[in-house]
Amino acid sequence: MQLQLQPTSTTSHLTVSIAPPDNGPSGLIRPVTGDPRSIQAADMNGDGYLDIFIAPSYYNQSPALSPIVLLNDGHGKFHDGTKSVFGTLPVIQMSDGVFFKSFTNDGRMGMFVTDQGLEIGDAYVGGFKGAINQFWLQDKNGVFQNMTASIPSNAPAFNHVSSVADVNGDGNLDVVVTRMGGPAVEGQGTFFYLGDGKGGFTFSTAGLPAEISYKPNNQIDWSSKTIDYQFSGSAGTGDLGGTGRLDLVAGSYTNGDQVSGKQTVRVYQHNADNTFSFASQTTEPEALTSAVGAMGVAGITSGDINGDGRNDLVIHWEVGAKSAIQILENEGNYQFKDVTLSAMGSYLLRDAQQQDGAGNWQTLASSYFLQDVNHDGKLDIVLNDNGVNAAQMAQGLSSGAFIYLNDGAGHFTPAQFAAANGTPLTAEQLSTMTGQPAWGFGFPLTFDADNDGNSDYVFIADAKNADGTTALDISTLFGANSGATYLAGDTGGTLMAGSGNATFVDGRGSDTFKGSIGRDTAIYSSPEAGYQIARGATGYTVTSRANGVHDMLTGVERVRFSDTAVALDIDGNAGQAYRLYQAAF
User: Fold this and answer.
1) How many domains in the chain?
2) Which of 9, 300, 360, 543 has the maximum number of C-beta atoms within 10 A of its C-beta?
3) What pTM, to 2 d.p., does this model score?
């Protein structure tokens, strides 16, 4: 399956200063992608365009570092805007999740960081020191201010892969935190930071079963043969029973569960009284155990991937420099079936220290997302995997492909990149477009960088300069609309889209544009100021201020003018420049 690209691309060249490591040759250590779970697209300055957030880390060396914010000019070029968006610079050790969400009811953006700390020393002898979680909130000027004091029960801990959702259904976002213990940090298990919608949080384990609930070390019965403590590495949420309530899914890390010794994925049903009861579990696939031994769950994502109306699960397994994926199909009544081999063809086991048969280094997936990349109404799988090269991208090689497209029935194939006319792009052409060497393009992100309604592909490459600063090359490849284009005439009429991403081009008359499945866009050749957008009972009208000619838009998600684009499928006032990025927890 193809992802089509426009012939144009752009590259931004930046220089940033990052403190060198305390131990080790700084020229050989590249911290920009050292914390890959932090790297993401988010609108950091409220201008309607998605920017890039990076939390550099040396992982197992000090010092802890401050984040880098690359602001988008709206055309896919980026510049360093870190100091303009933070009142004081955060210092993050090694995050396992950075969440940009509206944690307050007034719409301000918040940043919640779950930080595990640097892995300095021995995990079992002396132990890692851990870190505190952080919360930052935009002020009235859109600048992030440190509100970490609002987080209760926030002693240094090994805070692992967590998630954000409205767990208790009160309309406020909560944080589901998974802590992994150790001799130098206190406690392990899952708990909630319940949000109050004002930037405050309450620590809670209410309703959680004993086997996954957070406990201080001295309250865990290490000899229990009746409580099978899971020792979770990740927890996520999703409506898995169709009740409208968010159920909880927890996954073991590499040590296995206390009684069984197995690595499990456990599903807990969310009851009407806000308690969670065990519903089902699966174990690490035998194929993975046989190939590499015990792996741990480092991510849980929920979404309907086969179109049957039930949310399925995508599980991220990892150990050391190895990663794998598992697809669990929801069969109803909280029962799940491993369909990975039929869905993906394999568990996509990758070892970053190994090459594939063609001599390409395998890329380690640090996280997985469900995202409708090609806007066909089907959830695709996106991998955060640093180092994809030209051949892997051109040929869709499983050793490094970072997008797997869904056929709608839950079957995924690696995306192959092509020109807008459908001609496959060669490795050499892709290397030219990114401006990067064929052996490695850097860290990929998939988001709409220019608000044209298409997914774009942004690659972050870094290198050390002779003076000790870090050079960043940000390459943006622009996605093309692979759907049909409908041209309106000059006398008015009705145009109806088929499936896929349709484009309606306005004419001189009053028209009706009817969208369908996919993301549909109406194109106008003049600036936005020349039109008025109004919401009606069945859609939107776009009226020319010059002559009163108006179009009726039904099922159309985007309107693009000559100077900007607006979204009609996001709650709020029509006509606002949109920001949109959908990723799973």
Assistant:
1) 2
2) 300
3) 0.85
